[in-house]
Amino acid sequence: MNVSAALDWLFSTQFFGIKLGLDNTEKLLAAAGADRINATVVHVAGTNGKGSTCAMIEALARAQGYVTGLFTSPHLVDFSERIRVNGDMITPDALAEEISFLKQLAEGWEQPPTFFELALAVALRHFRKNSVNFIILETGLGGRLDATNAVPKDIAVLAPIGLDHQQYLGDTLEEIAAEKAAIIAPGKPSVTAVQHPGVMAVIERTARNRRSPLTIARADRNTPRPCLPGAHQRENAALALETMRRLHALPSPAAAAAALARVQWPGRFERLETPPLVLDGAHNEHAARVLAATWKEEFPGRKAALVFAASADKHIREMIPVLREIAGEWHLVPCTSPASCRRKKWLPCWPGRKPAPFSFIPRFRTGCRRRWLPRSPLWRQVPCSFWEI
To answer: Of 7, 177, 258, 348, which cross-links 202 as Cys (Cβ 3.0–4.6 Å)?
Structure first.
């Protein structure tokens, strides 16, 4: 198969849905020879900031001389973004080869592997072939039953935890924290960001029960400022630095600062200078609050022309009041997903009267680019924010 056909088959496995549990993952990894790992493994879970933290850990490990393998999700544009060796995305030929192998391997299985299980197997096989000796794995959903939890780890890392995916993880912060804290491995170190008190209590109890020495990472005036904007990214940097310190793999202060200053992670308050555009993928209330704070920090006293898209399963009603603080205009568009929130579902999400200016745009490309963006006074004066969730 060429890479196009291989990816078509891989994406077709999404019809199998989400299957939380590790038995099938362990079966797949063993059959694919992807369970034989000769590398330091860092496992990262959380609700917000996982991807940025993973990118910072990877940069620090590379600065220390490791050959790094980074597995993250979801991708923004190209599936290959999910799998990187020393910062380089997996090549089309290598991707096609690995997917073709796994397709043949799993033919006839009574319980077919899921999309995410297959993606993880592709990554681990690719890392082994490229002699990776430092692997960073980002959980896909939760932690306890996430496929990445089938991989033995050297350290567990917990980014900030908030409410999200309640249909799978539980309705309260404490229930969600228990799912995510379950990546902590017995006898292995763990590191957490500063958390809500209820979340911290769950993490501390889990670490204590599993005899995992736990460290809380806090940014201070000595924490290097990463390239990514926002005060929250300094907290993510502190988490990444503490992770490397616990692994006895922290680069020198100068090398660490230089590595963090080079980190790029698209879609996280990503600024495009021409036209002035800010792209971000916040998808829950906690992330929306962080974005609003970052906007106020970066553009004090200025309002955004907000182009907003969301999936129907997101908690839009909780996000809208937060984003109202920074929005001077609202332009609602569908995202390119079968689960996209449509017009008839938007209106019940608005507490009170709709703001003005306010519009629905049926297609982002033809609507936003041709109809309102060139004429919007805010578009000419201040950056526009586009949240596609």
So the answer is: 177
